[in-house]
Specification:
heterodimer; A: alpha/beta; Rossmann fold; six-stranded mixed beta sheet; four-stranded antiparallel beta sheet; 10 strands; disordered N terminus; B: about 325 residues; mainly alpha; two-stranded antiparallel sheet; 2 strands; about 65% helix
Chain lengths: ~280, ~325
């Protein structure tokens, strides 16, 4: 009992929602992230900005306990991401870069699995699923298979799912990527509503207007945090920078960042060519 | 539409800390159940698996069973079709469980698995749900050949259309106890093979289709398990002695060819070594024992490998799943 009480006390006293101290991850010879330190206050809206392959997703995955750091430490709501991984998982909601849905299942079935995984009691499960569907404006298509959903619908479903269990911190990995302007706006309105409710949000993005709308921005390049601050302040500090994009290009250079196709890309492409019914 | 964005489920949203999974040593029954049910729903919605199992059964059991069976008159008193029945069941189990397991590669990159791995649900329970799902599908797919059993027990030259003959075949084919035992063996086989598939899938970086799995894993395991040829002493065949050349010529002229050949005694040693090292050999032997009361391996080994290996494989599979996510 005393063991369980200790991290709870830590959570109550920690002033930060997220804290990373010299966080790093290397894969054999490749350094994906190196001594990344920053903190996000409770209720803050924070964006990680960076070119392709800069290490944004690695940082996000370390904070969400999916990847174990090889150096440094991090905590979410006062819980250490390595030692109290299970507590950290309870505290966070996550929306991945590409849909993490079972496309053969209906929207309802996907949400129901989430409810069980997070231990929402059986008695309130159906209501929680219904609420999430309503929140995502997907009431009418709850019984339809996700396979038939548009990118925007999938995103809304995932965002609704991510907040179903009442997380304290929301992690969004490129939440609006691949959406049309309408879908982007629709999703953004919902994220803004969560923010008003006091939710701490950490997102990665490529999209400058979204980053400018955040309380603070951290710019990551080649695995390192190169700048951090409020967007306005960052623009003011860089001479000749009119907007965040200027700051970004100034700090990360104008060179193209070509990335080799990841395993995921290869698999997605294979699926697009019509391969495999296992999906 | 837009005003719904303001209506949050916040008021009645549960506090994350208040939620908890009932679990014991990493086994949360609700998680196991929901992951099992997911596999079942996916299976139900993918009819191609059922058709695949059906066509495999017809090809192997009916076509090969009767085709090659015409040449090999008997194996220890069993027709060739009866002999390969447990083998065809095994083939269906292999396909069902490995297909279920390999779907992990998709699931990890573009499916639900990341969502599951970022949740507080214990990995062991998630894995168990997957394994139980794979095993249940294996039992269903493995039961397809059982439906064809009366065909194998028809008296020679009997008409299928004769109801009394057909009934005799049904009575001879089905022993309820044997069927139940066969389901138990299929289930454990399914657990083992799904676990093996999960261990393989966890190490697969890229994936270009099920073909490699089928050719590289399923078929070797199947062919090298004594599924379609006996391990020792084929007795029977076309005749009990070498046919003299003169008679061969005579027979050839009227269109009868010499196939098989009397006393085939034993597999070559190298093949024996591989077959004896293949765990599927023992599982299949167990299955053949319960269905035909015929075994070629020591029963103790059959029992050990069929029932004691799957729990071990399940733990290794759970460990592989954790490792797979951590090392991404």
């Amino acid at each position: 009992m005393s063991l369980a009480a200790e991290p709870a006390a830590a959570a109550a006293t920690s002033p930060h929602a997220i804290e990373a101290i010299a966080l790093g991850r290397r894969y054999e010879s490749v350094v994906a992230a190196e001594s990344v330190s920053f903190s996000v206050a409770k209720g803050e809206f924070f964006a990680l900005l960076g070119p392709n392959g800069a290490g944004k997703t690695t940082v996000l995955h370390m904070l969400t306990t999916l990847v174990t750091p090889t150096s440094g430490s991090a905590s979410v709501m006062g819980y250490d991401v390595v030692r109290d991984a299970e507590q950290v998982r309870r505290q966070l909601g996550m929306v991945f870069q590409d849909p993490a849905l079972d496309e053969r299942l209906t929207a309802k079935e996907n949400l129901d699995i989430h409810a069980v995984l997070y231990g929402i009691p059986r008695a309130s499960r159906a209501a929680a699923v219904q609420q999430a569907l309503a929140w995502a404006s997907l009431n009418e298509v709850g019984q339809r298979r996700v396979r038939a959903f548009s990118g925007g619908m999938k995103r809304r479903l995932e965002l609704a799912r991510a907040i179903m269990h009442g997380p304290r911190v929301l992690f969004l990995d490129e939440p609006t990527i691949g959406l049309d302007p309408q879908g982007r706006r629709h999703l953004w309105d919902r994220i803004a509503a969560l923010r008003e409710e006091g939710m701490t949000v950490l997102m990665t993005t490529h999209y400058m207007p979204e980053a400018e709308a955040c309380d603070r921005v951290g710019i990551i390049d080649k695995g390192k945090l190169v700048a951090i601050g409020a967007p306005k302040q960052m623009i003011a500090q860089q001479p000749a920078a009119k907007n965040l994009e200027d700051v970004f290009l100034k700090l990360t250079g104008r060179a193209f960042r070509d990335e080799e196709a990841s395993h995921r890309d290869l698999i997605v492409n294979f699926g697009k060519r019509g391969g495999e019914h296992t999906r | 539409m837009t005003n719904t964005a303001g209506v949050l489920p916040g008021g009645s949203r549960p506090a994350a800390e208040a939620l908890g999974l009932r679990q014991w040593m990493g086994i949360a029954p609700s998680v196991v159940y929901v992951m099992w049910r997911r596999e079942m729903v996916r299976y139900r919605r993918d009819k191609s698996q059922l058709y695949g199992g059906l066509s495999r059964t017809v090809l192997w059991l009916v076509v090969l069973g009767f085709g090659l069976g015409a040449a090999l008159r008997e194996i220890e008193g069993y027709t060739y079709g009866q002999y390969i029945l447990p083998g065809v069941i095994t083939l269906n189990v292999l396909f069902a469980s490995l297909q279920c397991a390999i779907a992990l590669v998709w699931d990890r990159e573009v499916g639900l698995l990341r969502e599951v791995m970022v949740s507080p649900a214990p990995v062991l329970s998630v894995t168990l749900g997957k394994l139980l799902g794979g095993a249940t599908i294996s039992v269903i797919q493995g039961s397809i050949p059982l439906l064809f059993m009366p065909l194998l027990y028809m008296p020679p030259n009997a008409s299928l259309l004769d109801p009394s003959m057909a009934w005799t075949a049904v009575e001879r084919a089905y022993d309820p106890l044997a069927i139940v035992q066969a389901w138990v063996v299929m289930f454990f086989m399914g657990i083992f093979m799904t676990a093996l598939g999960v261990i393989v899938a966890a190490r697969l970086k890229t994936y270009e289709g099920f073909g490699a799995i089928s050719n590289g894993i399923i078929q070797p395991l199947y062919f090298l398990s004594g599924s379609i040829f006996p391990l020792r002493g084929v007795i029977g065949g076309v005749g009990f002695m070498e046919i003299p050349e003169a008679i061969r010529d005579e027979l050839r002229r009227i269109g009868i060819f010499a196939i098989g050949g009397g006393w085939v005694v034993q597999l070559p040693v190298w093949l024996q070594v591989i077959v004896f090292a293949n765990p599927v050999t023992y599982q299949l032997d167990m299955l053949r024992y319960v269905l035909l009361d015929f075994e070629q391996m020591p029963l103790v080994w059959d029992l050990l490998i069929t029932f004691a290996l799957p729990p071990v494989a399940a733990v290794v599979a759970a460990w592989s799943m954790t490792r797979m996510m951590k090392s991404r």
